[in-house]
Amino acid sequence: MSIHVDTVSFAAGNTLIVDGVSVAAEKGKVLGLLGPNGSGKSSLLKLICRLRKVQSGVIRLGDDDIASIPRAALARRIALVEQQATTETQVTVMDVVRLGRTPHRGPLSSWSTGDDSAVAEALSRVGMHDRAGQLWHTLSGGERQRVHIARALAQTPSELLLDEPTNHLDIQHQLDILGLVSRLDVTSIVALHDLNLAAMFCDRLVVLQKGRVIAAGIPEEVLTADLIAEVFGVRACVEKSAVHGRCNIQYMASGA
């Protein structure tokens, strides 16, 4: 496995946020994290990239405990795309994506042709190369999200973590962003709210509730009407889509 979370727990004050979670992300595949607000999805992503400290359990990248990996080396390997990262500074698309090279450069090192190549390739992969000189604040929400992913790709990571990458985006941009992620040759863990998008683009799913794993497996095994009712509190009909072959969820109005 590329990322292996083994019985990990994390608390904020007296509140247990992540409670004995075990998760395995297969190399080169997309793992979706599902669950209601407060279920621990964002906290788990931050634990994996060591923005939060594990209180018990172990997180491994390959065979290595992340606690033993120097921060610079970890930053070169794992890239995190957080929700709605923004800035008021007058920066260009190129400026933002160049930040992705920070883990690869020492305090006194000069910008290299290798850095240029990594940035150019990242911009091309998200279809934003022709916007390199455009000011950040003039971009749409979907374009900004593409640039954030480009910044992460400029790190040349082997693991990519995304926290609600489709939040507040229109349908077209939701499909574009997740389609892009599913085609990348990296291990991806994506926290999502939309169950249909998770079914379409994720190879495997993990469902969290109150910090615990409730279910894990391929979408067809995990996304059942009973689980959706138990975890999300809604009635749903789950059928195989005639369009993409994955499960499709239709929600039922209360009282219907």
Strand and helix layout:
Elements: E1 3-12, E2 15-25, E3 30-34, H1 41-48, E4 56-61, E5 64-65, H2 71-77, E6 78-81, H3 93-98, H4 113-125, H5 141-154, E7 159-163, H6 171-183, E8 187-191, H7 195-201, E9 204-209, E10 212-217, H8 219-222, H9 225-232, E11 235-240, E12 247-252
Parallel strand pairs: 3-8, 3-9, 6-7, 7-8
Antiparallel strand pairs: 1-2, 1-4, 4-5, 9-10, 11-12
Helix pairs in contact: 4-5
Folded structure, characterized:
This protein has 256 residues and is of the alpha/beta class. The chain has helices at 41-48, 71-77, 93-98, 113-125, 141-154, 171-183, 195-201, 219-222, 225-232, and strands at residues 3-12, 15-25, 30-34, 56-61, 64-65, 78-81, 159-163, 187-191, 204-209, 212-217, 235-240, 247-252. Helix content is 31%, strand content 28%. The strands form three sheets. It has a six-stranded mixed β-sheet, sandwiched between helices.
Number of helices: 9
How far apart lie the N and C ends?
A: 43 Å
Average pLDDT number: 91
Strand order of the largest sheet: 6-7-8-3-9-10
What is the CATH topology? Rossmann fold
| CATH architecture type | 3-Layer(aba) Sandwich
Q: Which regions are unreliable across 5 or more consecutive residues at pLDDT < 50?
A: none
CATH class: Alpha Beta
CATH homology superfamily name: P-loop containing nucleotide triphosphate hydrolases
Number of structural domains: 1
Shape: globular
- How many extended strands? 12
The description of the largest β-sheet is:
6 strands, mixed
Class by alpha and beta content: alpha/beta
Order of helices and strands: EEEHEEHEHHHEHEHEEHHEE
Strand content: 25-35%
State the helical fraction: 25-40%
Organism: Metarhizobium album
Protein name: Histidinol phosphatase
GO molecular function, one term: ATP hydrolysis activity
Keywords: ATP-binding, Nucleotide-binding, Transport
